[in-house]
Amino acid sequence: MIIHRLNIRSGLARRFVQEQDGAGAVLGIFIFMAVVLIGGVALDGTNLWRHQQLLKQTADVAAHAGTVELAKGNSADEAYDRARAFVEQNMPSTWYGNLFGNPAADIRVVHYDPDSDTLDITGPQNAVLVQLHRNGNSQNPVPTFMLRLADVLTMGVVTDVSDWNVYTAGVTAFVGTKKCVSTDGLYARGELNLTSSSSFGSGYCLHSQDKIWMPQQNHFADRAGLSMPNLDACGSKCDDAANPGATAASFERNLIMEDLSQHLENVEQSFLGTSDTTIRDEFFQNKPVGDLSPLAAIGVDTSTISQRGETVNLSQSDFEALTAVPSGLTYNVSCTGGGKEIQFGTPNGKVKPSFGGGTVNVSDIAVITNCALDFGSDSRVESSVILTNLESSNASINASSGAQVGTSGGMCDPDAQSTILGKSDMHVPADFAGSNVSFVVDGDIHLSASSSSTTINHSGISLHASGEIKVAANHTFDPCNNPPSGLMPALKVIRHVEPTGNKFATTATN
After folding, report:
1. Structure pTM?
2. Amino acid 2: pLDDT
3. 3-class state of residue 347 by DSSP
4. Could you give the 3-state DSSP secondary structure of residue 452?
5. Which region holds residue 481: left if phi is over 0, alpha if psi is between -120 and 50, else beta?
6. Dihedral angle, C-alpha 292, 295, 301, 304, nearest 10 °
7. What is the b/e burial string over 87-122, where b = at least 16 CB atoms within 10 angstroms of the residue's CB?
8. DSSP character at residue 360
9. Which contiguous run of DSSP H or E holds residue 491?
10. The dihedral of CA 253, 260, 203, 64: what is its sign?
11. I want to staple 146 with a disulfide (CB 3.0 to 4.6 A). Which of 40, 183, 398, 432 is the partner?
């Protein structure tokens, strides 16, 4: 009996030692823990990425909305309110919680310098910064789900995976376009209408806020630009089959073009000294006052004229009677009574008793007038600014064939640039627009075809119109790459930027 009991007990011991059912349960627990942790990393990591994208997109959209207000000329306060409204609209606080550490500091209207790629609280306010938080600053970190089990499964070891801290920033700026230069291009708010057989050199731009129409055989060099907000408006013409080079030149761009009526008013006030004179002073910087004897000959007291850019008030008849126009001065010329235009050069069939025929060649002057402008066949205008503020249903800038504004022979010289500005339409012959010249018209611009089969060559010419621009056949346009001055309307875009000097980016920590 004793032996039998020992045998029974030894058999039970062997079976107990050899039994493996419990090992499977323990292994299952460890496998479950691993699956939970792996699933937690996947699930909570995906949730983290989702919140990072939501915050970044919301910050970008809000910054863009605020910058639109700046582009419209509204105040910094309006830009701030608009940006904050878009944050709430895209990520409502009732659903996502508080996203600000300090709303007054997290949404700011600032200055962006595209040259240094930095933000500053000083300088012209042209950008909006939006910073969003889901972290300790907002007391609203992104919670985890599966990873919270780590606090249990680590059996007393303190972990920090119960939530994620996320921060992001979006910056949008209202700045000049890098693609095109305002001194080298045709820019119309209305339709830009070309005929055929014109060519556009590398770096020269065409833009319409409406549409560009060109039938065929216009040629675009490499890196020429052809843009409008919607290329569908170009039909099949922005294509190499119709206009060689057009396919590579074409791109969609919504240019924010300056209000030309306001721009002309700013230029006028600057030259007359009734507002900020920066534009005038910049223009006359290297233009000394010339011989004043022609002014004395028509009865002007020249003893008080001592500074470059100084304003001389003349009637239309007095200005036309000048045998020469002294350089370095601003001429404020007024039309009264029946006189409605200034004639430069010999008029074609429009001889008036008061016309002295002296204003044939003008250089290094500024003319501000309420008269229309009529350029005769022998007139020459170089390195000058002529602005007519006449508002008329007819063209206020006209020219005869042979008249020319700007330099000849394709010469590029930023110090010799001319600018013609008007508040009504401009209708001129093909050869009127030379090189190194800009036309800014609050209306339509029509540049006619050559009177012969000869191609008219232009370098550094720009046309800016609040209406349409029509350019007839047989022109070539090449850039001068002259830097824009205050005389030129700004061409701006709204774009998202990542200021490298400020290190704004999306970050997340556990």
Report:
1. 0.81
2. 46
3. coil
4. coil
5. left
6. -40
7. beebbeeeebeebbbeeeebbbbbebbeeeeebeee
8. T
9. strand 491-497
10. negative
11. 40
Cα Rg for the chain, rounded, in angstroms? 36
User: What is the C-alpha to C-alpha distance for residues 141 and 99, in angstroms, rounded to an integer?
Assistant: 9
Distances (CA, A) of 203 to 23, 39, 182: 77, 55, 11
4-18, 100-114, 208-222, 304-318: the lowest-pLDDT one? 4-18
Report residue 445: phi and psi, to 5°: -120, 125
Q: How confident is the model at residue 157 (pLDDT cuts 50, 70, 90)?
A: very low
Closest CA to 467 of 198, 186, 233, 61: 186
Q: How far apart are the first and last CA of the chain?
A: 69
> Is residue 429 within 8 Å of residue 401, measured between CB atoms?
yes
Q: Give the Cα separation of 406 and 285 in Å (integer).
A: 19
- Structure tokens, 166: 């996320």
Neighbours of 320 (CB within 10 A): 23
| Residue 431 three-state SS | helix
Beta bridge partners of 353: none
Helical residues (DSSP H) of 72-116, grouped into ranges: 76-90, 93-96, 103-106
Q: What are phi and psi of 184, to 5 degrees?
A: -135, 75
Helix, strand, coil % (nearest 5) of the chain?
Answer: 30, 30, 45
**Distance of alpha carbon 360 from alpha carbon 320, whole angstroms:** 9
Alpha carbon of residue 129 to chain centroid: 18
Is the dihedral angle over the CA atoms 72, 75, 80, 85 positive or is it negative? Answer: negative
| Coil, helix or strand at residue 230 | coil
> Going by DSSP bridges, is the β-strand pair 437-441/225-228 parallel, antiparallel, or unpaired?
unpaired
Lay out the sheet containing 366-369: strands in order across: 250-252, 225-228, 205-208, 185-188, 461-465, 437-441, 418-422, 385-388, 366-369, 330-334, 311-315
